[in-house]
Design a protein that fits this description.
This protein has helices at 11-28, 30-49, 66-71, 85-90, 128-144, 175-185; strands at residues 74-77, 94-99, 107-115, 118-125, 158-164, 167-172. By secondary structure, the chain is α+β, with helices and mostly antiparallel strands. A 6-stranded mixed sheet has the order 1-5-6-4-3-2, with helices on both faces.
Length: 186
C-alpha cells in the first residue's frame, strides 16, 4: 500500500506566510487582487477545457513544428519545379532591386520586387532541396521579425514565406500575397 507523504509546516512558518500574503493584498488593494484572481481562474478553466481527451496519439500522426504549426504562414510546394526570375517577370512580378547573395548560402539570386502591389522578396536556388535546406531557416527568421520592432521601431513587412520549386519567396503580410504569384506560374 502506497502512502503519500506530506510535509507539515510549523505554525510559525504558516503564520509568516499568511502575514506576507496579507501584506501583499493590503499593498495592492483588494480591488486589484480580485480581478487577478478571477483572470487566473478563467485561464485555468480554459487550460482544462482545451486539454486532451486522454486518447493516445497514433505513431503515424503528423507532427507540426516551427512557425508553420503556430501561424500557418508557410507553404512548401512543387518540389519538381525549377524557375528563374525571368519566369516570374513573365507573369507580372516587377523586379525592383537585386541584392548580394553572401548572406544566403547557395542562393544564386536575390530579388526584391512586387506583385499586385505587394512586396515579395525572391531567393533563387539551384534546386528545391537547396531551397529547403538553406532557405527555410532564414525565411523563418525574416517572418519572425514581422511583428517585432527593431531598435528604431521599424517592422518588417514579411508575414509568410513560400518554398515553390527552387524558389523561396518572402510574402508581404500574408501567404496569399505569394499564392497569387505562384498561381500565375502554374
Amino acid at each position: 500500500m502506497d502512502v503519500e507523504r506530506y510535509t507539515i509546516l510549523p505554525r510559525s512558518v504558516l503564520s509568516e506566510r499568511r502575514e506576507m500574503v496579507g501584506k501583499i493584498i493590503a499593498r495592492l488593494g483588494r480591488a486589484r487582487v480580485i480581478p487577478v484572481a478571477v483572470a487566473t481562474l478563467l485561464m485555468a478553466a480554459v487550460v482544462v477545457a482545451c486539454g486532451s481527451d486522454g486518447a493516445p496519439i497514433p505513431d503515424n500522426a503528423p507532427v507540426a513544428s516551427g512557425i508553420d504549426s503556430l501561424f500557418q504562414n508557410a507553404l512548401i510546394a512543387n518540389p519538381g519545379g525549377s524557375y528563374s526570375i525571368d519566369d516570374l517577370t513573365a507573369v507580372g512580378y516587377k523586379k525592383s532591386k537585386q541584392f548580394d547573395t553572401e548572406n544566403l548560402p547557395y542562393a544564386r539570386e536575390v530579388w526584391y520586387g512586387f506583385f499586385n502591389q505587394r512586396d515579395i522578396e525572391v531567393w533563387v536556388y539551384e534546386s528545391h532541396e537547396q531551397a529547403l535546406e538553406f532557405g527555410v531557416d532564414p525565411a523563418e527568421v525574416a517572418i519572425l521579425r514581422h511583428n517585432t520592432p527593431d531598435l528604431f521601431f521599424n517592422v518588417t513587412s514579411y508575414g509568410a514565406y513560400v518554398v515553390f520549386g527552387n524558389l523561396v519567396m518572402l510574402c508581404q503580410l500574408e501567404l496569399a500575397t505569394c499564392e497569387a504569384l505562384i498561381a500565375e506560374l502554374d
